[in-house]
Amino acid sequence: xxxxxLAGVYAASLLLATAATGSAxxxxxxxxxxxxxxxxxxxxxTFTALNGSTFxxxxxxxxxxGLLSDPIPRIQLRATLPAGVxxxxxxxxxxxxxxxLLVLRAYDAGNTLLSSASLLIAASFVGMETLTVSAxxxxxxxxxxxxxxxxxxxVYADNFTFNSVAVPEPSSLALLAAGFLALGWSRRKQ
Length: 190
What we know:
The chain is an alpha+beta fold. The chain has two domains: about 1-20 and about 170-190; about 20-165, Jelly Rolls (Sandwich). The chain has helices at about 1-20, 170-190, and strands at about 20-25, 40, 45-50, 55-60, 65-70, 75-80, 85-95, 100-105, 115-120, 125-135, 140-145, 155-165. The strands form three sheets. It has a six-stranded antiparallel beta sheet, with no helix packed on it. Helix 1 (about 1-20) packs antiparallel against helix 2 (about 170-190). It starts with a helix and ends with a helix. Mean pLDDT is about 80; it is low at about 5-20 and about 165-175.
């Protein structure tokens, strides 16, 4: 009888572990318009520049397309996410023009700050750095740079990655509940 109980606990653990895993999506901005975009959507994420500004895709230090806010002063970007996102990462950086405080901030649907990450890069820095935030129910993130950046958010963004927590299907939950009931019934018969 104890073997049956342990097998049931093991099966329930596997089901719960698979229910807690999620899927990751990476957006590389390879199909963003070359200039003057006010909004861009891919994989359920909508990118906009704050304050109604525009942004474009141009070659970043990774050697690929990266987002950059258009007119100077440059504005930070916002990514509105699909439901269930629990982690966001983005590469931020530039070509040694000025020191920059790279920032990534996650908010819930009520505009409450959930998590933030920042990193100061030197004026001589050429390249990209990855910032990551984690929290449950991230509705949107804001990213870019802040002073000492010159001309606003003067950094490129690339490789936007987000993870969603998978929600188990109702049939999986029903099977799990039936298994626990069967375990309880078998233990009562002992």
